[in-house]
Specification:
The complex is a heterodimer of chains A (243) and B (526). With 243 residues, chain A is α+β, with helices and mostly antiparallel strands. Chain A is built from seven helices and 14 strands. Chain A has helices at 39-42, 87-90, 140-168, 197-201, 205-213, 217-225, 230-242; strands at residues 4-6, 16-17, 31-33, 48-52, 59-64, 75-76, 79-80, 94-98, 103-104, 114-117, 123-124, 129-130, 172-180, 186-195. In chain A, the strands form four sheets. A five-stranded antiparallel beta sheet of chain A has the order 3-5-4-14-13, with helices on both faces. Chain A has a four-stranded antiparallel beta sheet with strand order 1-10-8-9. Chain B is α+β, with helices and mostly antiparallel strands. Chain B has 17 helices and 21 strands. Chain B has a seven-stranded mixed beta sheet. A six-stranded mixed beta sheet of chain B has the order 7-2-1-11-20-19. The radius of gyration of chain B is 24 Å and the shape is globular. The chains are: A alpha+beta (243), B alpha+beta (526).
């Protein structure tokens, strides 16, 4: 359970983050949220899809990392083996939010508050990266992390626009995959959604133009094509089942 | 010569305009189904006019629906999120019947909306009967259906991630009928192209063939039409008053004749909302309890032959509690029965104008839905074939009323309560022969689909199973012990039901939680 507290240069002067442990935050995630700006990097290895948030039912873009809850096939030997580490991991253990309600909120305020998850396994007292230098100014590391948070924040707005357009143009379809592994066990992937290619092909010129102008057309293509990476997941799983 | 020429001309008249008289839920649902199917919002489409009195209030009965309402809303092109938000609607997963068997505390059973586990594959009911009373074996509805556990824990039939109109467990709705009528009106006039006229009908004008040619109104000219739908409620203005079609009472079978209804606010905004109708047996009838988002609808339906109004008010007060003194109680007469004919000439009655029964199995709205669907699907293209459609409509609708009456009566026949109302309800001469025949069959086997052979059935055999075995009826399988041979299959079904219960109660939100989320986020369409 995350416990968010606002970061300041007095209380957190000596706080350090062990960046080797950041990926622990994703060790047991079989899907992880991704934003549009990282679609192309993420799609080099992970299948991208859309799923519904458990609390709100709203559509969110995710990278698929495993076939069942708690299974991250890119996590082994205590390390993240994937080439691309999603923003959602790199931003750890920091959140943009409101420390009073302890909620992760997307605020329209320009002055966002950066919070740290005080329960994060990456927090350490020595050997890690400092947030602040001796003068109390942001360290290079903390500046990078803040940039990650900023990218996530603007990315979330873009993702929302993507989802809205996909829904408005009836381009979403549910995805049900039955996968049989080498050892003949099988699993079914439910609750995922992707782009309906047939509907995409039938869009009229104005709609295509609209998607293009909003910068969504490329993202839609990546989303659609990335499903080929399900084979990468199957290979990883088969490997795991053999050993 | 002349007459036949006249007939020929009549017969060739195309049905281009339908006039619905009355604007309650029955009127709007019928107008809506017709308008949606026959494209009233296009040039070439059917013209659908609904004329509604600005002075006569809707009776507003029927706050419980069947799962059929989901397909009705889909057919009308309505968003489930909008419907739930605007009609104060909540989810209904069947009914809990309390104190119907012996009236003691702890006397209850469920008639859920999910079919029994393994239904149709083997005689699960027979296996349950064989195990009944053994240690760890619960009631029929608990052992064969995971929905009872969901209801008992106040959980919703789906999650916010489930698409609109889809489910985890089959469901219907509870709704505010006043708000629903307004909601339908808006949708039918804005989206579906129904013409809405607010005016009082002052006269009914007939043609030579005794058809209705038009209705006169106060401020609008005569409204002409090819087909007239009577949705004027209990007054049955066209079918009853104008055509004098007799009313066929069934008060010899179903004794309820009065309702006392009250709207009860929740204690606070976090109070649980039951996701099923609660029907509690009382000395001379029963009390309905329906949970909407912002209030409960509660009412005592009783027979005035067995209870004075004063006694009835005391029973209702006892159920509702102290705050009843500040709440207005509405008295509604219930005349159980239906018209001998529903479609006469070019006039068809839908809703209370066609008939009414006590709301024991929420049959009022479903009968409206079925009628509206049938009229829109079988709308005669010309006057000439209208009589054929009318005949079929009458036969089907008759059959449905009789089946509903049988099914309602079954609840009373199986009771062991000993107040005069209940004892008299079990008298042989009050039980329809069609019901008695079936009950004789079920002495030796459980209700099956082969007992209900029409494709216009209202209640499936599974519903009869839930009521029969919920109320302690026993089918005797001793003559055919081999039925119980497939014991592995039965074990599997019972254990699967237990697993379904575990999954459901660990994943479903409470009814109120889900309703709150729908208000904030809404359902997606896929």
């Amino acid at each position: 359970m995350a416990n968010l507290v606002a970061v300041d240069n007095k209380n957190h002067r000596t706080l350090q983050i062990d960046i080797r442990k950041l990926a622990l935050h994703g060790a047991k995630l079989n899907m992880i949220p991704v934003v549009l700006s990282e679609f192309s990097s993420a799609a080099t290895q992970y299948p991208l899809a859309i799923t519904k948030d458990g609390e709100t039912g709203e559509f969110v873009c995710i990278a698929l990392l495993g076939f069942e809850t708690g299974e991250n096939l890119f996590w082994s030997n205590g390390e993240w083996q994937g080439l691309y580490l999603p923003l959602h991991i790199r931003r750890q253990p920091f959140f943009v939010g409101n420390p009073i309600t302890h909620h992760k909120v997307q605020s329209d305020n320009i002055d966002h508050i950066v919070c740290v998850d005080s329960e994060s396994p990456a927090i350490t007292s020595e050997g890690g990266m400092n947030l602040f230098d001796e003068r109390g100014l942001d360290s290079d590391y903390f500046q990078q992390t803040k940039a990650c948070l900023a990218e996530l924040l603007s990315g979330e707005a873009e993702s929302k626009r993507l989802i809205e357009n996909l829904q408005a143009m009836d381009l979403l379809q549910s995805l049900s995959l039955k996968i049989t592994f080498k050892n003949q066990t099988s699993t079914r992937l439910n609750g995922l959604y992707t782009v309906n290619k047939e509907a995409l092909a039938k869009l009229v010129d104005e709609q295509i133009l609209q998607l293009h102008k909003l910068g969504l057309l490329a993202a839609i293509q990546i989303l659609s094509n990335s499903l080929g990476q399900v084979q990468t997941l199957i290979d990883l799983k088969n490997n795991r089942l053999e050993h | 010569m002349n007459e036949s020429a006249e007939n020929k001309k009549n017969n060739e008249t195309l049905v281009k305009t339908v006039v619905v008289v009355g604007g309650g839920i029955a009127g709007w649902l019928t107008a809506g189904r017709l308008a949606a199917k026959h494209k009233a919002n296009t040039e070439k489409g059917l013209k659908v006019i609904l004329v509604e009195s600005p002075t006569i209030p809707a009776i507003g009965v029927g706050e419980g629906t069947w799962p059929t309402m989901r397909s009705t809303l889909i057919a009308l092109g309505i968003s489930e999120t909008d419907f739930i938000r605007e009609c104060d609607a909540s989810f209904k997963q069947g009914a809990k019947f309390a104190k119907w068997v012996d009236g003691n505390e702890g006397d209850f059973y469920y008639h859920p909306l999910v079919l029994p586990q393994g239904y149709g594959q083997a005689e699960v009911a027979a296996h349950w009967l064989a195990r009944q009373g053994q240690e760890g074996v619960g009631s029929f509805s608990h052992e064969v259906c995971f929905q009872e556990a969901i209801c008992e824990q106040g959980l919703a039939p789906k999650t916010i991630r489930t698409a609109e109109f889809s489910d985890v467990a089959n469901y219907a709705y509870h709704l505010d009928s006043g708000k629903f009528a307004v909601f339908l009106q808006k949708h039918c006039t804005n989206k579906l192209g129904v013409t809405h006229i607010l005016d009082d009908v002052t006269a009914i004008n007939t043609a030579e063939n005794n058809d209705i040619a038009s209705v006169s109104t106060n401020n609008n000219k005569d409204i002409c039409g090819d087909l007239f739908v009577d949705c004027t409620g209990f007054s049955s203005l066209l079918l009853g008053k104008h055509y004098q079609v007799p009313f066929k009472s069934c008060s010899d079978v179903l004794f309820i004749d009065t309702a006392l209804a009250v709207q009860v606010p929740y204690d606070n905004e976090d109070s649980p909302i039951a996701s099923h109708t609660i029907s509690t047996g009382q000395e001379a009838g029963w009390i309905w309890d329906i949970g909407l988002q912002h209030r409960r609808g509660v009412g005592y339906v009783y027979s005035s032959k067995y209870s004075t109004e004063e006694q009835a008010r005391a029973v209702l007060a006892d159920y509702v509690g102290d705050n009843i003194s500040s709440l207005p109680i509405r008295k509604i007469p219930i005349v159980s029965g239906y018209r001998e004919t529903f479609w006469k000439n070019n006039c068809v009655a839908v809703g209370l104008s066609a008939g009414f029964l006590e709301p024991l199995e929420a049959s009022a709205l479903v009968m409206v839905e079925l009628a509206a669907q049938m009229i829109s699907e079988q709308l005669p293209q010309s006057r000439g074939i209208m009589n054929v459609v009318a005949k079929r409509f009458n036969e089907t609708t008759h059959y449905r009323w009789q089946r509903i009456i049988d099914f309602l009566k079954l609840h009373y026949v199986l009771s062991k309560r000993n107040e005069p109302f209940w004892v008299d309800n079990r008298a042989k001469e009050t039980i329809p022969e069609s019901l008695q025949d079936l009950m004789d069959l079920w002495e030796y086997r459980s209700p099956a689909d082969c007992d209900f052979t029409s494709n216009n059935e209202v209640f499936p055999a599974a519903s009869y199973q839930y009521v029969l075995y919920g109320m302690g009826f026993k089918s005797d399988y001793s003559h055919a012990p081999y039925i119980l041979d497939d014991i592995d299959f039965a074990d599997y079904q019972f254990s699967k039901n237990k697993k379904l219960i575990d999954t459901a109660v660990s994943t479903l939100p409470t009814n109120r939680e889900l309703l709150n989320k729908i208000k904030t986020f809404g359902f997606s369409t896929i």
